[in-house]
Amino acid sequence: MIRHAARMLAIMYCVCSQPAYSNYESQAVTPPLSFSQFCIQYPEDCRRQDDRRIQDFRSSIQRWRELAQINSTVNFGIAPKDPPASRRDAEWQIFPDEGNCGDYAVTKRHLLLRSGWPSSALLLAEVVVRATGEHHLVLLVREGRAVLVLDNLSPVVTPLVDALDRFTILRAESGADPQRWTREVATF
User: Fold this and answer.
1) Which domain of life is it from (predicted)?
2) What is the pTM for the complete model shown?
3) Are the CB atoms for 48 and 119 separated by under 8 Å?
């Protein structure tokens, strides 16, 4: 009953909060329904979080290793499951035994948030895979001037400029507010 009510609230939020596409506020768009449901289940992961990393201790090489380790750990720690066969495609979960791209992306984001990364640097992004036309979720990580992609379809962390050969970005979280989504790549 509570789960049903949460789903209904998420649907109402998506439908009533803003138009599907707007020219205001950096081309703000409605977040995916799955994201709205995720935020009801995991509200702490959807709040703005400041950078808690110790900047002096951690070199860019150490941060790169942390990204690579989390990407690899999550990619191998969750068994892939096609969306129709999973418990429900619309429900992203942290640390499921098996899951789809949404589960991989939110788990990676969750681990990086717990490691002290700021929410403004960890942006979920809905993309379309060029080869198949399939909608897919990845995690974009801003590290200095670079934007890196953590993807369950790739064993390595990839710079966004290289990954754009494989997919097109439809929408992503705004770096200013984790609850808002945008179409503008420049805001990533």
Assistant:
1) Bacteria
2) 0.81
3) yes
